[in-house]
UniProtKB/TrEMBL annotation, chains A, B:
This is N-carbamoyl-L-amino-acid hydrolase. It is an enzyme of class 3 (hydrolase). Zn(2+) 2 binds at D66, E101, H357. Zn(2+) 1 binds at H55, D66, H165. It comes from Rhizobium lusitanum. Binds 2 Zn(2+) ions per subunit.
Length: 391, 391
């Protein structure tokens, strides 16, 4: 699956979802960052809606379930309510957040960040995608590709947000439990590091003349690999991207750019790992007489979800007699940003071998159905009752 | 300078040189790998010609002198002989060897390898360039772009070969000597290593599930950097290329491909470094439960040039009262392959700060002129005298 944010593939998926919504008579709208909303009205228009959903964009070599599962499960809930003729007091809205993955345009979660007003939409316009496309241009093209979805002011009031998502880890599968109730999310930081040296002949350049940015990057990352992971089993350190220029077998590189993704459930430990990364990179660059440029691309603190929403999901499982367990998410999700403006939580379903961000990502039909049932029951409780108070 | 082998830029340079040759009434021809020859006849057609020249292709971000200097200095020699109306007993031929750099199509020195029949021209046809182009197609297009140069059988008999080239190192400049007489070349091996793991989520994948090929590559290369260079000051180990897939900040890579260029003047030491590289890469791949594929892309043993030709150059410098020193080349050159079928040697001129394979590569006009004068005097000696015997 390659349906990266704001790409033609992403636009086609939005178009299809909008057609399905129109077919059921639901109203649709977008906002300034192309978050897509599908609304089924409630009996009391004065109450803010219950929001459910996830995202439609994928990694360049992603799976079929990461994001799409939660978005389509939410739409299924809307259809189930419609099919059953249920009248809810609150409207129920399905959302597909823009650019959750951040693989094409960094940072990730742009849609939910902008929705809760922590994102800099103006500043994002000139961001270039990995293939050179400009964010602002791709955003405009995506908005224009869906003229039937009127553009509303961003960040409208909601009463709660619940997101169904694949676990992207092996915990549920190993425990043989179909539902995970997510109580929080570990923190994530993305750093982009650029070392600039000097291209020179691989065979003739004297040792003291070599300014090799790749050698420096390798030294720094090797030290970090030894120091951070698995030294701390809760820590994650991943170099997902590395580009080398001019990229010739017999030329000492002139420039190397690489990313480091670090994660930890404890904010202070996460900060100390970030400090270690920066220190090792600067030290190695200095040893090799290189320029070092370090930029923070993404920074999401560990977060805790709303206890009241967690209880509603727990009760939904109880009423449906579905086994569940509480866990903390290793991945960040839009729900963590949305939880800043409304009570929110997440529902995880198991994925085979815990594999995600990979074409072999898989979720069984039974688990998909179970997740949708829990989401339906949760949405019913939230939409019929009074506004949920944050614990 | 970006004039990579068989590119449109390379064809334009060949075209220009052919026009200059036609303008002076010299005959031109090509062979099956598009080596380009410009001939000024001698008085005795039965004697094989003296060959002088270098190459016209460059690195993707190369300088203006690497290769082009030796080719144009050789053409300047032909023009000087013509201007002076000198009659040589042997014909003097200028050559521009195809794909010396090997940056677009690996291996390098294809032209001189094929000329001395150590290359596998048929096997090269399907080699893909870094941008995907097929060698065979680009070769045919390059040959067809120069219809005025008839195609002759490859590997015609020659009496000697002399190549002027920039030193690509700082030795001459530091010593303040304008001419280096090259007595030999250090050996070079190129390895291409591919580690294949499994793409997975950077944040949620348990440690025991991670199969990270980039982490494995970094571990192996870091060990090699400590063990090989600068431990042995004569050794060179360079990773010039590294590509990471799928290249997403929050995805553990599925595949990493990198090249290692190793050099040493002693054949047995070079072999032991190669063995060390292979061992470290296999060990690290095994530690990370990865597939490892290692391919040898280029293998040039250290070589020694012809003592008689070295003496001719020495005498040329003496007769012109030009300071010179003997040295061993850190870079491989076409002359090393040609020396397998005819006595050969090289003339080095200083380049600023020893910088090459870089846009800031520079050679002073004075040094260029000195190099051309020595080449002219050397060519005169070789073309007028009897066949040079190999020492």
């Amino acid at each position: 699956m390659n349906r990266q944010a704001l790409s033609t593939e992403d636009r086609a998926a939005r178009k299809r979802l909008a057609e399905l919504a129109a077919g059921r008579g639901f109203s649709i709208h977008q906002d300034a960052v192309a978050n897509l909303f599908i609304r089924r009205d409630g009996s009391n228009p004065s109450l803010p809606p219950v929001l459910i959903g996830s995202h439609l964009d994928s990694q360049p070599t992603g799976g079929r379930f990461d994001g799409a599962l939660g978005t389509l499960s939410a739409f299924e809930v809307l259809e189930a309510l419609e099919d059953a003729g249920v009248i809810t007091e609150r409207a129920v809205e399905v959302v597909s957040w823009t650019n959750e993955e951040g693989s094409r345009f960094s940072p990730g979660c742009m849609g939910s960040m902008a929705f809760v007003d922590v994102g800099d939409i103006a500043g994002w316009q000139d961001i270039r995608g990995v293939e050179g496309a400009r964010f602002g241009d791709e955003l405009a093209a995506t908005l224009n590709a869906l003229p039937e979805a009127r553009v509303q002011p961003i960040g409208h009031s909601i009463s709660a947000f619940v997101e169904v998502h694949i676990e992207q880890g092996p915990v549920l599968e190993r425990a043989g439990v179909p539902i995970g109730i997510v109580t929080g999310v570990q923190g994530t930081k993305w750093l982009e590091i650029t070392f600039t040296g000097e291209a020179a002949h691989a065979g003739t350049t004297p040792l003291e003349f070599r300014k090799d940015p790749l050698a420096a990057a390798i030294t720094a990352i090797a030290r970090l690999q030894q120091a951070v992971m698995p030294a701390d089993p809760l820590a994650r350190l991943t170099v997902g991207r590395m580009t080398v220029e001019p990229s010739s077998v017999n030329v000492i590189p002139s420039k190397v750019t690489f990313t480091i993704d670090i994660r930890h459930p404890e904010e202070d430990v996460l900060a100390s790992i970030e400090a270690r990364v920066i220190a090792e990179c600067r030290a190695s660059a200095e040893d090799h007489a290189l320029d070092a440029h370090i930029e923070k691309r993404f920074d999401m603190a560990p977060g805790t979800f709303d206890a009241a929403i967690v209880d509603v999901i727990e009760n939904a499982c109880e009423s449906l007699d579905i086994p569940r367990m509480k866990l903390v998410s290793g991945a960040f999700h839009d729900a963590l940003f949305v939880s800043r403006v409304a009570p929110a939580a997440m529902i995880f379903v198991p994925c085979r071998d815990g594999i995600s961000h990979n074409e072999s990502e898989f979720v069984s039909s039974e688990n998909i159905e179970t997740g949708a049932k829990v989401l339906l029951q949760t949405a019913l409780s939230l939409a019929q009752g009074a506004a949920v108070k944050s614990a």
